[in-house]
Amino acid sequence: MARLADYFVLVGYDHDKRGSGDGQGRIIQRFPEKEWEDNPFPEGIQLFCQPGGWQLVLERKSPNFFVAVLTKINSERHYCACFTFWEAVESSQNHADVTDEDSKFIQTPQLFAPKSLVLVSQLDHTEVFRNCLGLIYTIYIDCLDFPLEKVIGNLLTCIVPITGGSQRTISLGAGDRQVIQIPISDALPVTGCSVALLLKQLGINNVLDLFCAALTEHKILFLSSSYQRLTEACRALLALMFPLKYSFTYIPILPAQLIEVLSSPTPFIIGIHSSFRADMQDLLDVIVADLDGSTVVIPECIHISVLPEPYLAQTQTALSMVLDPELEYADYAFPPSSMSVSSMKFQDKEIRAVFLRLFAQLFQGYRWSLQIIRIHPEPVIRFHKVAFLAQRVLLDDDFLTKVLDGMAFAGFVSERGSPYRVCDLFDELVANEIERIRSEEGNPQKVLKHVKEISEMLHRNENPYPAVAMHKIQKPTEGSYLRMQRKTFPQLDEGMVQWIIDQATAKLKNAPPAVKAEMKCMVPMGPPTAAVIDRNGIILANSARRLEVVRNCITYIFENKMLEAKKMLPAMLRALKGRAARQCLTEELNLHVMQNRAVLDHQQFDYVVRMMNCALQDCTPLDEHVVAAAFLPLVTAFCRKLGSGVTQFAYSCVQEHLVWTNLQFWEAMFYSDVQNHIRALYLEMDSEQLLETGPVNGEREERSALEVGAEQLCMWPTYSKEKQQELIDKEESTVYSQAIHYGNRLTYLLLPLDTSKNRLLRSTAIGDMESVSNSFVTNSIAGSMAESYDTESGFEDAETSDVANSVVRFINRFVDKVCTESGVSSDHLKALHANLPDIVQMHIETLDAVHRESKRLPPIQKPKLLRPSLLIGEELVMEGLRVFLEPDGREESMGGSVGGPRILPAEGAIFLTSYRIIFKGVPIETLVGEQTVIRSFPVASFTKDKKISQHSRTEQDIQDRIQLRSSTFQLMKIAFDEEVGSEMVELFRKHIHKLRYPQYVHSSFAFTVGQAAKQVIEPKQKEKNPSLRTMSKNIMKNAKKTIGRQHITRKKFTPPTLDQRGIPAHGDNPDQISVSEEMEQSALTLSSTIRSTDKSTMSHVVERACCRDYQRLGLGTLSNSLTRSKNEPFRITTVNRMYGVCRSYPSLLIIPQTIQDNTMHRISRCYRQNRFPVVCWRNSRTKAVLLRSAGLHGKSVVGFFKSQNAPTAGPSPADSTSIEQEKYLQAVINSMPHYADTGGRNTLSSFTSTHMNSSDSSDKQRQPKIGVLMKQVMSGKEDVPSSFSRGGKWGSIRGSGRLNAYSLNSDVGVRLAGRETLSSQANGGPSDSHYFRQQRAGLYIIGEKSQLKGAKQDPLQQWEVVPIEIFDVRHVKNSFKKLMKACVPSSASSDPNLSYYRSLEESDWLSQLHKLLQVSVLVVELLDNGSSVLISLEDGWDVTTQVVSLVQLLSDQHYRTLEGFRLLVEKEWLSFGHRFSHRGAQTMASQSSGFTPVFLQFLDCVHQIHLQFPMEFEFSLYYLKFLAYHYVSNRFRTFLLDSDHERIELGLMYEEKGEKKPQHVYKSVWDYIDRLSKKTPIFFNYLYAPEDGEVLRPYGNISNLKVWDYYTHETLSEGPPYDWELVYGRREQMDDGERTDTMAPQTQRKIVWPCYDNQNKTEPDAISKLLEELQMLECELGQVPDKWKETWDKIKTTQRTESKQEGKHLSSSSLLMSSSLSHHRRSQCVYLHEAAVGSTLNLSLDTDSSTTSTPSSGVLGRKSTSTLYSQFQTSESEHRSYEGVLYKRGALLKAWKSRWFVLDKTKHQLRYYDSKSDTDVKGIVDLAEVESVTLGTAAMGAPKNIEEKAFFDLKTTKRVYNFCAQDCQSAQQWIDKIQSCLSDA
Q: Which pTM was predicted?
């Protein structure tokens, strides 16, 4: 029984505080004044009476009513029913009494103040409260003759029952009568129509969102303009959550003054008036439900976990059927005539029934997961969340996990966990209706029927008596609130009210107490767990095959069939990734334990431990608890005997899993065992009693712990006090004994076998957070020094590093927690704490013995370590360390999407040699077969190593895991075996760093290979950046001293003879270099440097790469007499012969003929690093030259250099350098024939539109206009204006300082574009043809935009500056890092934002290639149109080198041969000082600069061009990959050091001819390539069929670029395929081995795996295969096989003859060799057509069709590119280094015949023809086979009248050729030329 109302309060407007801003309310009267003891008066009533604030209004409002809810701190709720009306405010002036009738309406303006009648109650009877307060207001307003004091007294003394389903009639003594329906059960919420109203307002999906949000503890805010609606909505949401109870902040109506509560960090359900919507803007984590607008707004930052399927869909369907029953029949042709639509009250209950049914489904079987720890004196119940989720197979469900972790569910367990209590509707549903609910799934009619049945029970609970007696309540007359009141609400007599209350209280005291009959009973358990799992039986059925594998494997192990078990083990370990297989494993192992088969031999023990580790490793965190719980008894059962009295248990081998450090796991396990023992305790007591009375009933033995607990709770009152105490003591001792047992178990699992290492606790600072535990200490693990702390003092314990202490601390925390919750006495707890250190110490002693004995065991059969093949000269630095090679982000080695078995992880060893880091091993997956896995990379390419955290386990215990990354796009993730100590791992890393970054470059592998172990004297470390810190004289001195020092320190140098004039005396030994210290630099001219009589000196200079190329290009010659006609525009200067002008330039440079050497010093100071403009290539057709230099200096740097390097003759004027520089550029322009005689300004600006529009329409898709290209290269961000005005004057170099030496014009692109309006093609390639007049700039200077700002223009200059935006080396470095991570990711990523293509795009690597190709094509266009170009970017050794090299490659087909490409790299990259050592971080000094692959970027560009023009390159793509690999490998000396100057200092420049070097040591990569090319065509491109003068213009857009397979391809069978001896030499050995093995079955079948095999080797191309077979056949026939090149050349000769005979009808075979092929190339050549009017340039992209162009200038039509070139396919197109007539003696008939001989340096052969005009080769002598060339004697039949010395013999490995020249001089020339070729080789 309870009071209907506790307090009646009259609250009014506080006029005293009227002037202080917002109005306030005050309590005028309160009844009773004295507070009830059981229910104190709640504070703050006045705030809730007017939630919007107390305000005066101008007109009366209709009285309103709502119920506010106040929640006390103990979660009890007060219902405050507020009835508010408005009274007139008394004016300060006295008005005359109003005598009008009451019905008269007020007309005068007046203020009105609110007044509230408030009832405070603990009961929620909204309608009763409304009626009672309405009656009091009616008595007042209508002046009824009933005393208010009596009415209020009766109200406050009215007593009603809380529950029981009775009907109570009450009257307040004013002629009224009300009937109160008492609900049958107070556990079920009473809702009226509020739930139906909420669904009507918001809709199904919105309500479901709010429902899920409330259950998962989010903040929810309701908005409405109705206070009562807010209360109803909040009540409805709470009702939907039944049987859970909301335990957070709950305020259905929030007053405006408390609005800051919305910023609370805790969850809440709050309602607020919609007028405060503006204040909601800052609430970022609150879900706002607008009841009036039917919307729910969920912020972006909030994720609401939704109901799991199929529950969500089922709930939505059921709700739609309830709310809209017509929906089912909406499509019927004949819908039912009568459809019953439930009223709001019934709809309300049906909706609640749907949600109640939902909870029954969600929580089905929950009672089977309750753990009863104590029964007496009070039941202690815990919920085993993991077990519940596991049996439901919902371990990974986010929603249910959050619900079970929530406060509401914790309350649910504490309230409903007891096995003996009052049951309600929910208990009945869970116990009895689950089977029905499951069977009705998918049948809407049955579901709806069940819902209606439940709703009827809910309705009956609220309305137990359907026939309600008539209410009788007086209501005020209509409009009465508008009448003028004579007086305000009267002051009530407090004494009278109190007297009525006292009278009623006295009566209640005398009345007998009402006894509530509690219907307690045993709570039914519901269907058992097994029945729930049946629903997921399909999962078990699907994995039946896996379970069979698991069972069979375990059977083999325990039957000791180890071979069978080993075969099946990989499949079993893979099967253990499934949950069902893990469950099966635990069941099977448990069976063997029960059969006393727990003592195993060593191999059985190893297999069982591996399976346990694998099962624990692959679990999710929650699933891990289930598996670990099943393993816990097993790991203390399985064991093996190590020796006498020493037994090792399995727990010592499965410790390294985080689950063992998870306190919540141990708690759940402890409580589970305690429950079993408590149950056993009472069952044993029952059996003893039953033995006395009768036979044992079997059913009683099957009772669950909860059922036993219910019986005990039922019988508890009947026991005597002694019996009760006895039971309490027995339970406590049971819990205490379990605590001791678990102390031991924790000790077993936490103490490592080697107690000197506490890996487990140290590595885990935080345990699993998945627990409903409220303990703050729970998730901290006592581990290492840093993470352990004293729980009592709060300070760090200095002694916790001891492993025993850390384990004791962890166990103490566990014991404290479980014993406190289980009610263990403090004495027992103290005894436990005292015993724990002893338990731990005893176990440590036991483990020491086990550890000692386990070391004596024969080691487990681990795979034998395979030793890698090494290069000759490569030495092991560290022996192999046993490791596991783990898979990384590349999919190929993992099988899976690519197919095939898992090659990785592999077990083997990591080796460190002087050259490489090598892993060699075998796959762990035994099904892969006996395959060898090799992964290696050069130490010199190593870029980064890092330690990586443990996340997985392979076969054995693993300590350290590191990741090694290489710039050759290789990655090794290696995990060291436990046998490898940490100190060995650190030593391994230190050795890598020592080898990777030697102190001096000559300590690298390229220098130490092949040498005896001799002490190398280290040269003094050079200064960094000498060009910035020293002067020219210092450079000279350093060079002299260093060279002098080399004669002492290096064996290969011999002291040269010093000439008096200081000439470098080059004798037979090209390394002999001398320097005179007496001679001044200005006196060293060409004539004084090179003696004409010294022929060997001449040949030495000519042999240098630069000079050979300069002679070929006609840029400078070194003749015997040194006579040069003055009309030669360029000359070779030796001004830099001692590297005095620029240390990073070569010694011989090309400059204009008119420029004197002594001016070069001053010009060089204008440029960074003194790298002044020099000529590096000349277009043979247009005579335009390509120059290179560094960018200009800033003024400050220039000033510094000027002061340091001023000549002794005295400083020159400030602008003299600029004048000389201007002369220099003018001299370059004058070198071109058609510029020498012209004057004035020649630009591209004056092109007329006539020339632009004169091309035929067929030409419009051919070549890009230079202007368009220029606009693309220059920053394309700004729109180019269409006007062609000059836009200002050009500034002179003299007047603008050195920074302005390159004049910048923003309209350069406009002038270059002319009136070109046609756009380029979409692919970035050529677009439209156009015609240039000869009036254009003579020189274009490509410079950096950032360096060329603010320059003026000079109309008299004949050069133009093209400012471009180019990336710097920092961008290249960062881009390369991202490219490596994209192509070789360290781990697979599931994030779509980190996909391969996204990562590739973000690296910007292809964008940089695009920029390089774009600039290069522009320069090619300019050169091809007769304008010279100077590339002047950065320091002149990175981007400049890239662009210059690409331009020459595109323009000159000579550089597309093997010999030419070598020459290009030697000239532009090596001689011109690209900083290979610095950019490659080859030494310790350059380590900090990082790896910047500038050369690799160039090779990638060549690769892109090669892909687009496969027939234009003599070398293959493998050749480019080979260079890319070995330029960072340091196997060769070619790419070491930063300049020729440094190479000369170390003696690398020239090889001594007399030096005997071992055949296996190749100091130059070029030597290696040449010798390898003679053996194999691996570097040769069979498609090579060039066209003369072909100029390539590749497409440059990113869409046309391909990712180089060098970055992504890998061969695991043999490692990188770029060390030929290791890959192909090894294969030959293997082939020999295979031939001897006659026992092996012979099969033709070959399986090729994509990432394992070298596909080029296993599946070679057709031509290579045919050549190989040809050699094999020749060997079988006993013939000496021809070299592949000879065979190939013979075939080509035959093909040419065939094609000649067949004419135009080419056979398919001849098509392969024919040089007229056009279908496989993109020709983009330039032709100059001569006509009467003049020459017009026609740029065409014409390949197959023959098109004609008819420009207005009268140029005739022409044939296509291919046709033109096939017309000129004469002997002129071949490479001819020297040619002439020789007589040759026949091999068979010995007859002398005259032949035309051609010496070809490029192809390294001597060819002969019938005559000069003949194109068919009659024979070839391969110079590689030539042993000697000597003077011969005249033989019989020789030509007459020939001198004796005109005969010479050529001896090869096969025969001796006899030749006869015209005279002795000619013969000597032939001998010299052939000797020169041989020395090159």
A: 0.53
